[in-house]
Amino acid sequence: MSPGSDAGQDCDVAVIGGGPAGTTAAILLARRGNRVVLLEKVRHPRFHIGESLLPMNLPIFERLGVLEKVRALGVHKRGADFEANNERGYNTFDFARALGSSPPHSFQVWRADFDAMLFAHAREAGADAREGHEAVGIEQRAARDARIAVRTDAGGSYTLRARYLVDASGRDTFLGVRRKLRRRNPDHQSAAMFGHFRGAAVRDGVDAGNVSMYRFDHGWMWMIPLPQGVMSVGAVCWPDYFRQRSSRGTQFFLDTLRQNTAMWRRLEDARLIDDTVHVTGNYSYDSSAMGGPGWVLVGDAFAFLDPVFSTGVFLAMDSAEQAAALADTALRQPRRELALLRRLEKRQRTAMRRFSFFIYRFNGPVIRDLFGHPRNVLRLEQGVVSMLAGDVFDSPRVLWRLRLFRLLYLLVGLRDWRAWRAGHAYRIAQARAQFGE
Questions:
Q1: 294 and 165 in contact (C-beta within 8 Å)?
Q2: Which has the closest alpha carbon to 286: 186, 361, 367?
Q3: pLDDT at 417 over 70
Q4: In this structure, are strands 219-226 and 211-216 parallel, antiparallel, or unpaired?
Q5: Share of the chain above pLDDT 70, in %
Q6: Regarding beta strands 10-16 and 36-40, do their DSSP bridges make them parallel or antiparallel, or are they unpaired?
Q7: Are 119 and 28 within 8 A, CB to CB?
Q8: CB atoms < 10 A from the CB of 231, how many?
Q9: Is 82 a member of any domain?
Q10: Looking at the structure, do residues 29 and 161 belong to the same domain, yes or no?
Q11: Per-residue model confidence (pLDDT) at position 239
């Protein structure tokens, strides 16, 4: 169907956004016999951050039929490592030690190549995939009648009529903005700056493809090995750090990276490609609703967590896979739509809470001790490895250990609080005795 023809302006499902979430939904919906129009406002390949994939992405790749394509694009990643005070300077959390059924490895990819591959695969699956077509407005006339205003990069415009709308527009949150659904997370605001280096030191041997995590006083940093000897390097920082900066641009980025000595040692002989630094802010947010009659938000259009555990692409593709089944059912059995939507939203929010517990405490002493001095008591460490692999939905062996870890975390926090309070009372008593009060 041509975007310029009348036939091309009616479809069963319109998908806004040609990233991992949108292409996943489009592929699966087209396979089920739906007429799908996939709108992407720019043309592939286009730059995007988020190069690190989780092991639980791999079963989705298999179901989409792209696993070998991803393998050809990616760097093999067998685990994640975290800075530690030991002889090597880090501890590796090997995905092969996970408790559930997650694969023992994953990949790191250039997102431009990865997203372009998925977009082409959506077209091969039967979706009408349109690049340079931006959704700029919407009128929801009824549950099965959405009118989407589209503008093309060739200067044209048209109205697309859809019986169902999947918003996979990422951080643009097409529907979230128009319906005023987006909510910033008041407890975890951060901003990120990142760039790509050549010549950075990789880990030895089988750890060469690992993603590496480092902490510093104002947040945390990542190193992600990519194809062609490139290293993605970034820092996620609290807002007050940016407000007190003494330098600007590239220099501020490099000054920030120098604040972790172990990380900077791996970059001493590296060069920043094209002296280019990217900055993005307000990382953590969600939406007050995931969907309604005739529409659903998937991936970053619904919510985004801090990227410390590389959850973005996995949660995007998982939610899109679930939403595709929801949309197909809604079109065929409308009475089931709202119940299925409530179930999907509960599923996604539960997974986000499980990741968030660790994310929001990453720089705290208990989580720092876990990653710096791992102990596999009651196989809790393996439960955390499973979480890092993305296994946060259905595995009882993993989920009860994550619940147990939360309980132990609270008990340790209570113990430390009591110790601090007792010490504080002692210091007050000593001061009063010293000054004769």
A1: yes
A2: 186
A3: no
A4: antiparallel
A5: 92
A6: parallel
A7: no
A8: 22
A9: no
A10: yes
A11: 82
